[in-house]
Amino acid sequence: MVDDQEDRLQLESDEIAALPLIQPLIERLRLRSFFAEAFGQPDARLKLPHIDAALLLVRNFVLSRHPLYGVSEWAKRFDPVWLELTAEQVALINDDRLGRLLDKLFSVDRRSLMTRIIVHMVEEFGIEMAR
């Protein structure tokens, strides 16, 4: 009887790293909405929307700073739920797709985007700006 139970048991290990700590910060900073405003109307042809790819890069920069060609393998280590993606979207991640995101980010008004994020951060966290 014990041997049958051992055969059915399987140990699974998932990596989550600091993603549970980063997600509330991303939400409080409202990065998804700020990226949505900056990128404008989403392109329906994109299988991985620019907003999701941008948030993936933010997570990668905060946790490990992989080069673009390494982000795909890095993302596959996590349950897609922690990256706010589907398994299909994780399979689509590659350096070309992320490069196109960076091209898009370069074409938006980055100064306004950063200003909105910083002003919101100062207000949200009560950061003293007197000094």
Low-confidence stretches: none
SS summary, helix count: 8
* Quantity of strands, as a count: 0
Structural class: mainly alpha
- Helical proportion? 55-70%
The main sheet comes to: none
* Whole-number mean pLDDT: 93
> Which percent range describes the beta-strand content?
under 5%
Envelope shape: globular
Along the chain, the helix and strand elements come as: HHHHHHHH
N- to C-terminal separation?
Answer: 70 Å
Give the radius of gyration: 18 Å
What would your notes on this structure say?
This protein is mainly alpha-helical and 131 residues long. Helices cover 64% and strands 0% of the residues. The protein has helices at residues 2-8, 19-28, 31-39, 50-63, 68-76, 87-92, 95-107, 110-125. It is globular. The model has no long low-confidence stretch (mean pLDDT 93).
Q: What's the short story on this structure?
A:
It is built from eight helices and no strands.
What is the strand and helix layout of this fold?
Layout: H1 2-8, H2 19-28, H3 31-39, H4 50-63, H5 68-76, H6 87-92, H7 95-107, H8 110-125
Helix pairs in contact: 3-4, 3-8, 4-7, 5-7
Task: Output the keywords.
mainly alpha, 131 residues, 8 helices
